[in-house]
Amino acid sequence: MDADITLTVDGERRALTVDTRVTLLDALRDRLGVTSPKKGCDHGQCGTCTVLLDGRRATTCLAFAVAHDGAEITTSAGLGAGDGGVGAEPAHPLHRAFLEHDGFQCGYCTPGQICSAAGMLAEAEAGWPSAVTPDVAERPALDEAEIRERMSGNLCRCGAYPGIVAAILGVAEGRRT
Amino acid sequence: MTGLLRPSAVGRSPVRVDGPAKVTGRAPYAYEQPVREPAYVHPVQATIARGRVTAIHTGAALALDGVLTVLTPENAPHLERGIDPELEILQSPDVAFRGQLVGAVVAETPEVARQAAGLVRIEYERAEHDCVFSADRTDLYRPEVVNPSLPTDTSDGDVGTALRDAERTVVATYTTAMTHNNPMEPHTTVAVWDDDGLTLYDSTQGVHAMRESVAPVLGLDPGVVRVVAPYVGGGFGSKGTAHAHLVLAALAAKRTAGRPVKLALTRQQMFSLVGYRTPTVQRVGLGADPDGRLTALSVDVVEQTARIKEFAEQTGVPARKVYAAPNRRTTHRLAALDVPVPSWMRAPGECPGMFGPEVAMDELAQACDIDPVELRIRNEPETDPETGLPFSSRDLVGCLREGADRFGWRRRDPRPRARLEDGWWVGTGVASSTYPVHASPGTTATVRISPDGRYEVLIGAVDIGTGAWTALTQIAADALGVPAEDVHLHIGDTDLPEAPVAGGSSGTTNWGSAIVAAARSFREKYGPDAGPGDEHTASTAENPFAQRYAMRAFGAQFAEVRVHADTGEIRVPRLLGVFAAGRIVNPRTARSQLTGGMTMGLSMALHEESVFDDRFGFVVNHDLAEYHIATCADVRSVEAYWRDEHDPYVNPMGTKGIGEIGIVGTAAAIANAAHHATGARVRDLPMTPDKFCE
Amino acid sequence: MIPFDYRRAGDAETAVAAVAGNPGAAFLGGGTNLVDHMKLGVAEPDLLVDVTRLPFDSVDPLPGGGLRIGAGVRNSDLAADERVRTRYPVLAEALLSGASGQLRNLATTGGNLLQRTRCGYFQDVTTPCNKRRPGEGCSAREGYHRYHAILGASPHCVAVHPSDLAVALTALDAVVRVRGPRDGHGERAIPAAELHRLPGEHPEWDTVLGHGDLITAVDLPPLPMAARSRYRKVRDRASYAFALVSVAAAVELTGDVIGDVRIALGGVAHKPWRATLAEAALRGRPPDRAEFRAAAEAELADAQPLRDNRFKVPMARNTIVSVLAGLTGEEPR
User: Do A78 and A99 share a structural domain?
Assistant: First the structure.
């Protein structure tokens, strides 16, 4: 059963017709050719498909596209690109930090890691606690332990976690100063 | 060989050549290769562990709108038999393991293909299956060789007598779990048949290796098969050999009249189709004098293989190489079961094989009341204990000493269960690490100057995340004597010169040596003033030192462990490794290789176990929610250092390989630290909280 | 996955009627469990009624001091709510210990309560499972059951409920508000502790809800003692894993003794397990480790672990002790 929907992807409005069974991830990858978000498990268990969905980080493999008609999606390709759409070069401080700290190897989980980090930094700036916040009533300070916990929904089989954490911490500290 | 390469670009840390494309997600992996109007393949898998398909009903599937074809054992195109039973899919009704491919649907969309696959109804004649892995089986057999072609058993002196007579002994059984590689990118093949032949965009560790495997099975001249893999989302061995899905994609494409087909395995399907590490049972015997000098060392290994195809993990091999002992024995025995086919997983043999013996060494240190670092140093051999050959270079002792210094080992209170902090038992442990230097003579590379004056370097290498894009560019720059910016590398395509897989930690050795050979002969031919159009191809020769020296990398792994006194939860706040692995080409990417291996070792130590239900013949926890790999929160401080090692014998770069040694010994170091923390000696992996909760 | 129709509900009444009128229909919330199960063939709805646009997306004060949590409130928003964090920290901690940041941004309060067991056989349609297909048999009882129940199981099913949120709500005496096809314009209230059920003869029923029943809200009672509460989840990984055992607890000291205490356990039964025996044993007793241990042992006396999950008995006991010790200022061991 088909449905007509519209998605705004990395600043570009796209209209498409999808089978109701098509997930947001497959709509992006198979229908729109937007392959920055990756498919690692298709069940919300690895985080490689993470994008910013209406401004918040979300896995796209467990979301039906039809249920997100009208949504605004930012992938890692569009992150930091501003209104001009997707540029040719990495545009976001997280991109540069991941390169500098070698926060990836095979690169397959990386766009999801970066979108997750962008969403997570916003969550932390909004004062959201995490499972390792000593007192959830208090505003947490974003240290390495907080970043590790908050990024645990993004698996990296290459084991680039120390670089990922260093990259994100660097960007977070850059924002604070 | 004309001496070691003079390093200029080598030894620096440029960011990854492929980095910008990867962080933005624009690097095209196999599924993302641009093809026109692809059809989609969804496999149908056997739901019995042994028997035969007696009927396969495809009517409901074929009736579905959008289904193009259903492949079954009754209608599948012919394949050549007798080459590789794992790849001979859909050629007979026989079922050799649960999850085996017994059909596939090709459809207009992935949703329709998957729905239709569920509508294919299969009738089976079940046969009694046997999937019970146990060291007590009476039908264990001795394989002719162990992977890749090493002696199955070795024996020197008289281990039995030496163990009986030793003043200090440790005799214990250690087990490692069945584990799955689980690269983040699922195995994917996009197949296209056209007038020129078959093109396979594949998620693979070796383009030429895939072609060599798949072409004969398809009855094709390798020349008409092209395999392309510019970006690969990890492999860890599981993409190093061809698996059944690759053939299935080719068969499906044969049925779509030139239309490309895409086949991406689901995460669940990967647990039965793309290999895994066998569980191992290791009976280890150590005998020593009161000073800790080994008099006897034995490792008797039992592991499993598939009845359909043998894979004999070389688990006993590292014990042949690390310590001196006059009396020594290693053996391997296999249980052939109705199970999926085991295969390579990061540091096959070496990784599981340095668990049992290295925990046993810790137990021996305790029995002798000797510091475990010192015990290892006392047993340093002068030559390769197995062959008597000198080592081309060996610095295990340096790694142990430097690691001990960096880790703060001297401050350690040797008593177990002596340190309790905030409700957590704290301990530290050490283990040795080693990995062989592999080389494949005949690796080929081409150097040419493009019309715009850049140096183009062409080789059928693959970067699975190792940093090959970057390291090979650096090596080429130094071999040509030009800046790295002037080098344009081409990899990941069988249209490029022939190169072996990214495996065995040998990528840089093989591909780098070929690039050096091509660059040197290019310079000899054209001199420093070569110009556009000049081109030269060269291959690596047999290393003349290969028969005169034993060649291995070594390392020392240190771990700090905390175990919650109430719940048994186990954490690893600190891992530190020091490695002697020859020259390091790119410190930035090398550190990631080593710490990444250590992290996978941590994951193996604490988390990983494919729980096999032998009643059904499948892995119950076949997804990433229940098959645990380490998350970001599990991995805290992971540090890797390396010794400055000059080895003129291994290859022109002086490199030994760094992709696998990081995972070797990690689990033992963690187990030893857990014992030091709690006093509980865990000999079975993984070390989950229940093993410490009392 | 079979094809399905998709409808977006404009109001609760229409949503309930749409699902109630079609035995193959299901409500769609955040989708994090339902879509998962549809891909696996565990769930095969032919109509999805999307309830995420219903006006159940806020947390509001209740007269008398409690809070009403709309069923559509996302797990992340609920965990970030200042009132929840200060007055019911156990609830925020339970939410934050579940899934991952990007899943919590999707998952809803109602959907979290209705997630289904993680039993590997339940999730694999090629193996027998009484919960999926009653009468087929239970594959877990003699199979892989490390995560399974030690309390309240039946010969037919040994699964555990995976929600962390539900465990905290059970400890807090929360009330689940439900609108069903027979409730007219009204709603009915079900204590959180009674929402989920033990498997008994009918493991296919996770809860007491019927087809078409829609959770609209969860009410938290005013419970001053909950300001001193916590959720402790013991799992195989440091994060992003389901519980081996978990403990939600709140303690109120009256003088030198325990005045009131709430304890619920997760990962031990087909439902969140309110530890009423332990609570009774502790009221009026001094807050020390020996008392905590005796109370935990009283609760777990009837535990019937399986071959490979015997560890859960000492683990649950020790975790209860550890949490209560932490809440009452006892030194860690």
Answer: no
Under a CB-based contact definition with an 8 Å cutoff, are residues B110 and A30 in contact? yes
Residues 497 to 526 of B: which have CB under 8 A from any C CB?
none
What pairing do the DSSP bridges indicate for beta strands C273-274 and C257-266? antiparallel
Where do the domains of chain B lie, and which CATH numbers do they carry? Answer: 19-29+440-539 (3.30.365.10), 37-128+182-273 (3.30.365.10), 145-179+281-437+548-691 (3.30.365.10)
CB of C35 within 8 Å of a chain B CB? The answer is no
Q: Which amino acid is it at A47? A: G
B257–chain A Cβ distance below 8 A for any pair: no
- pLDDT score recorded for residue B257: 86
Tell which wins on pLDDT, A37 or A89: A37
Domain holding C285, by residue range, is 227-327
Q: What is the pLDDT of residue B240?
A: 98
Task: Quickly count: other Cβ atoms within 10 Å of residue B128's Cβ.
Answer: 8
Residue with tokens 């009845």: B307
On the question of pLDDT at A84 being above 60, the answer is no
DSSP E strand boundaries for C180-314: 188-191, 214-220, 229-235, 243-254, 257-266, 273-274
Answer whether C322 sits within 8 Å of B571, measured CB to CB. no
B694 counts as catalytic: no
| Nearest residue in C to A133, CA atom | C93
| Boundary of a domain, candidates A84, A107, A140 | A84
Nearest-by-CA chain A residue for B235: A106
Q: A97 is in which domain, residue-wise?
A: 93-176
B572: chain A residues, CB-CB within 8 Å: none
Closest approach of A63 to chain C, Cα-based (Å): 6
In whole angstroms, give the CA distance from residue C275 to residue C261: 10
pLDDT digits (tens, 9 = 90+) for B642-666: 999 999 999 999 999 999 999 999 9
CA gap B459, B480 in Å, rounded: 15
Inter-residue contact A171 to A93 (CB < 8 Å): yes
- CATH number for the domain including C27? 3.30.43.10
* Complex ipTM value: 0.97
- At residue B244, what are phi and psi to the nearest 5 degrees? -60, -35
CATH of the domain at C250: 3.30.390.50
How much of chain C exceeds pLDDT 90, in percent? 97
Are the Cβ atoms of B115 and C2 closer than 8 angstroms? yes
* Domain stops at, among A65, A84, A103: A84
B621 contacts on C by Cβ (under 8 Å)? 120, 144
Tell me, yes or no, whether A56 and A107 share the same domain: no
- CB contact burial C75-110 (16+ within 10 A = b; e otherwise): bbbbbbbeebbebbbbbbbbbbbbbbbbbbbbbbbb
Q: Which residue of A has its CA nearest to C231?
A: A131
Distance between C239 CA and the closest CA of chain B, angstroms: 6
Option in B607, B613, B625 nearest C118 (CB)? B625
Give tens-digit pLDDT for B18-45. Answer: 999 999 999 999 999 999 999 999 999 9
